[in-house]
Design goal:
heterodimer; A: 11 helices; 2 strands; B: 14 helices
Chain lengths: 273, 328
């Protein structure tokens, strides 16, 4: 699960690093992605794993639309306006899903991968394993794109210094939009992966989003590679917290970890301030 | 022009007195429970948003964990009343004391964080507290607490089953208290300290403001008022559970009310409550029963439109209209 968390958080981190906006609708983006994957399966019998590029594309379009429809207009506004614009979007998407699809829990009934794999004393569900591997792959692809390709470097330059980047001939508006497209596409991939084995309902995004905020803040806002490590850490603490305490307290353990870390290092584990 | 200059504050005062008289006379005119319920909710959320405004609007620390204090107020009075038979008024005082102590315990470490880190840390604290309460069996856990119903109506028991008028006046008093405290802070030296911290921490510290102490004081005042709202809520509904008094959505709603009205202004929060609460209750009554969440759909769209078009809230709109009026 850690890798999937990391992928969700990476999208958030990328957007924040670019323009210092926390997308409070991130969990709802995930929910939308899961519904896209679900309907691809329901209507066309395409397994979530196969429709993954489609889901990523759909979410990319959503990110692009959100950027141009909402974010562009609050970019220079106060932090509160930014928080509430994305929060309003979250409420809108969540209630929109409830309006359109109802509140029933849905699952993909005959996923491509099923069953469990026994590795010595530990047994892992095959879909979960496939999800982690794919998430890790997507993460590596994202990292390579950011650090190797010209566009990726331009994105990073914009994140570091908006004005200097635009002086260098980088179209920062385009970079912002691109950041939203890529950040949302990451969530699209994660959503498709989760759709293989998780229930799908309008409120599904909320706990994942909370974990994503913690993960991002833990790794340091805007630092994409550190997000991976933080994501794994969150996944481990969640699993062992649930095992050692009671399952009901596993999220509390994760949040306590976050508080402990930021109090010790206010900028996150690897953050620059 | 000079006459208009002296007339304006007088006019403003007259409008405020008229509003207050109207608020006092309201239950006499409207005897049905529903309009009274809406007014009570406006007062309650107005008071909660005013309390949030002290820490976030004036002191600039965006707390998304106000529900913690609200829940403490609700639980303290309800448990003392149920188990010891203590009057909820004493419970309210106890809730205030506990909320203030907890606020200082939370604030001391968390105030070292800034911006988004601070906001997310307050969310994290809220989630931890809710998880702990849900799993705390001695105080009912996820099942919540029923406040024992006592008859007949009595002020001591803080229960009025015959009429909502008593609740109405108590909520109004709560709101007036919150507004009075804000007014006091706004006018005092402390208010200037708070705003200095909001505008620039380093500059404030350089000028001799004890930044950490001022933040803790603002949070303490905010927590105390919020806890009183919690006790009121518990006595009004007579049932509380972690899901109703500790959720993140409550913390966010409190901020929204203030943001809608105008952050950092005295009348903003009550204005926001006066718009948002009837809208929410109204759409819920008309559309909520369909189970289609249409009310929330409208609510979400509205928030986006407001934050995009008018980040300063309704108060900014009002003052803009006012300057346009006086320019003529």
């Amino acid at each position: 699960m850690g890798f999937v968390y990391a992928l969700i958080a990476a999208g958030l981190s990328l957007i924040f690093g670019l323009m210092e906006i926390v997308n409070f609708a991130h969990g709802e983006f995930l929910m939308v992605a899961m519904y896209v994957a679900f309907f691809a399966w329901l209507l066309a019998r395409i397994d979530p794993l196969v429709s993954l590029p489609l889901t990523a594309l759909a979410l990319g379009v959503l990110g692009w639309a959100v950027y141009h429809g909402i974010i562009r207009w609050v970019l220079d506004g106060p932090m509160l306006a930014q928080i509430f614009a994305t929060f309003g979007l979250a409420v809108l998407l969540r209630s929109g899903a409830q309006f359109a699809f109802g509140i029933d829990f849905r699952t993909v009934n005959d996923p491509l991968l099923a069953g469990r794999l026994a590795l010595g004393p530990v047994s892992i569900g095959v879909p979960q394993l496939a999800a982690s591997v794919t998430a890790l792959g997507a993460f590596v692809a994202l990292y390579l794109f950011l650090s190797r390709s010209e566009t990726g470097v331009a994105l990073q330059a914009t994140a570091q210094d908006r004005q200097a980047a635009s002086l260098m001939g980088i179209d920062t508006q385009r970079m912002f939009a691109l950041g939203w497209v890529i950040g949302s596409a990451c969530v699209g991939v994660a959503g498709a992966l989760l759709a293989m084995f998780f229930y799908i309902f309008p409120d599904v995004g909320a706990p994942f989003a909370l974990l994503a905020y913690v993960t991002v803040a833990l790794g340091g806002f805007g630092n994409v590679p550190a997000t991976l490590l933080a994501g794994v850490l969150v996944g481990l603490v969640e699993a062992f917290g649930g095992l050692l305490l009671t399952p009901a307290l596993k999220y509390a353990a994760v949040f306590a970890l976050y508080l402990g870390v930021v109090l010790w290092r206010p900028q996150g584990l690897f953050g620059r301030f | 022009m000079a006459a208009a200059g002296t007339l304006r504050p007088l006019l403003t005062r007259a409008v405020l007195v008229a509003l207050l008289l109207g608020a006092l006379a309201f239950p006499a005119v409207f005897t049905l429970p529903f309009p009274r319920h809406i007014m009570i909710m406006i007062f309650l959320y107005g008071a909660l948003a005013t309390a949030w405004n002290i820490i976030a609007g004036y002191c600039g620390q965006i707390s998304l964990g106000q529900a913690v204090f609200f829940g403490i107020g609700a639980y303290t009075s309800s448990l003392l009343f149920r188990d010891l038979g203590l009057t909820p008024w004493a419970g309210m005082a106890g809730g205030v004391v506990i909320a203030v102590i907890v606020s200082q315990m939370i604030g001391y470490p968390v105030f070292r964080l800034r911006g988004h880190y601070f906001a997310i840390a307050t969310i994290a604290v809220g989630e931890i507290v809710q998880a702990l309460i849900v799993n705390w069996d001695a105080i009912g856990g996820a099942r919540g607490v029923f406040v024992p119903i006592k008859r007949p109506d009595s002020f001591v028991n803080f229960q009025f089953h015959q009429s909502k008028a008593f609740y109405y006046y108590i909520a109004l008093a709560l709101l007036l208290l919150a507004l009075g405290v804000t007014r006091l802070i706004e006018r005092s030296r402390r208010g200037y300290y708070f705003r200095a911290v909001r505008e620039d921490q380093e500059a404030a510290a350089a000028l001799g403001v004890n930044v950490a102490r001022e933040k803790l004081r603002a949070l303490g005042v905010s927590a105390a008022l919020t806890a009183m709202g919690g006790t009121f809520y518990a006595q009004y509904l007579l049932f509380i559970d972690p899901e109703s008094v500790f959720p993140l959505s409550l913390s966010i709603l409190i901020c929204l009310v203030a943001v809608l009205g105008g952050v950092g202004t005295l009348w903003g929060p009550i204005l926001g409550a006066a718009v948002l609460v009837p809208l929410q209750e109204g759409t819920r009554v008309m559309l909520g029963g369909t189970g289609k969440a249409l009310d929330l759909l409208i609510y979400g769209a509205l928030i986006i439109v407001i934050s995009v078009l008018q980040p300063g809230g309704l108060m900014a709109l009002l003052s803009r209209a006012r300057t346009a009026g006086s320019a003529r």
